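Session log. Operator J.P. requested a structure for one protein chain; no other inputs attached. Running the standard single-chain path with token output.
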Amino acid sequence: MPAGLNGLLPALVLIVLFFVVPVLALLLRSVTEPEPGLQNYAALLGDGTYARVFFNTFLVASVVTIVTVLVAFPVAWMLAIMPSALASIVFGVIILSMWTNLLTRTYAWMVLLQRTGVINRTLMAAGIIDQPLPLINNLTGVTIGMVYIMLPFMILPLVGTLRAIDPMTLRAAALCGASPFQAFRRILLPLSLPGVAAGGLMVFVMSLGYFVTPALLGGTSNMMLAEMIAQMIQSLLNWGLGSAAAFILLVVTMALYALQLRLVGARRISGGA
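Structure written below.
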């Protein structure tokens, strides 16, 4: 073995044991249980009920990613331009939210979003609404809860990208007569796209496989793929169908990651040229 690979051997062993072997076992079960064949994949891709779960999964992941980008961008820009001492405090608060137990944060949103929760009671007391808004057990509740959880994963790569942009570029655009919106659309946004792509992919992929928040804040009509896989394996003991669904989710995730690498690589090449 080449000397340069000796240091990589422990990492390669861990990857094989804890990633490659489980994935192969998953694939094997998906084509051998309850009997050899591709009937599990045919059932998943041909049944309307399963197709709706797939659609809900990608719909929720897409909505969460878009809303997270819209909310995270101004926060990341604020962190990039504010004084370092204040930015460190705000950054610490954002990181601290990641250390709080996920289940605790989700239950907190259940309390806030329910019909008699703080949000509805405040809006009704202010005379803004007459009846409580349906903020839980639907797509709205899932989106709110997951955006809150995903925000740090979007802000972190965005801050690094925005801080790397030379402020003189925006000043030069202003001196050339560009309006703030034009400077944002033609300079800041294109230069920040690598951070948006990295954070957006991370949020989208994590949202595809999320389980706790959609299960607690969503309803039966908004079931996602991770929840369906859990029910298949834990309740129905249908390992074949559950393994097939999990493997499809893994393949889609890897395909999206490969597409993102290709797009970012092409952008870097075109930018360097």
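Operator note: Residues 65-226 form a domain with the MetI-like fold fold (CATH 1.10.3720.10).
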